Amino acid sequence: MKNNSWTPVSSGLFPDDMEDVQVTYIGYNDHEPHCDAFAYRHDGDWYWSLDEGEVRVKITAWKLTVNLIRNHCSYSELIIKILSRLKMQ
User: Fold this and answer.
1) What is the per-residue pLDDT across 56-80, written as a single tens digit (0 to 9) for each?
2) Most exposed: 6, 27, 44, 53, by fewest CB within 10 Å?
3) How many CB atoms lie within 10 A of CB 14?
4) Is 10 helix (H, G, I), strand (E, B) or coil?
5) Which helix (H) or strand (E) holds 56?
6) For residue 78, what is the enclosing H or E element?
7) Where are any strands of DSSP class E within 1-89?
8) CA nearest 20: which of 1, 47, 59, 2?
9) What is the pTM of this model?
10) CA-CA distance, 64 to 88, in Å (whole number)?
């Protein structure tokens, strides 16, 4: 079973290449930490999962995603599934 806690980037531990993870990053304009995005690494660089654009802010930590997220092939499908589950609550 994989660990599902936050891993600081400073630890030198990173997810597998191309594995989507939730990330904590420092906002470009407000310089505050945010943990509302997903990204993946490829050849040592971070890319946003949403649009595959290169990350240009500092990522400070990452966390493996839950099975609900890992089992989806597209970000939009994930959002639809999450929103429908929230409506049921």
Assistant:
1) 999 999 999 865 444 545 666 667 7
2) 44
3) 15
4) helix
5) none
6) helix 75-88
7) 7-8, 21-26, 33-42, 45-48, 59-64
8) 47
9) 0.70
10) 25
Task: Decide the pairing of beta strands 45-48 and 59-64.
Answer: unpaired
Confidence label for 7 from pLDDT (cuts 50, 70 and 90): very high
Q: What is the pLDDT of residues 9-54, one digit of tens each?
A: 999 999 999 999 999 999 999 999 999 999 999 999 999 999 999 9
Backbone torsions φ then ψ of 7, nearest 5 degrees: -115, 115
Tell me the residue type at 74: S
Cβ atoms of 1 and 30 within 8 Å: the answer is no
Q: First-to-last CA distance in the chain?
A: 28
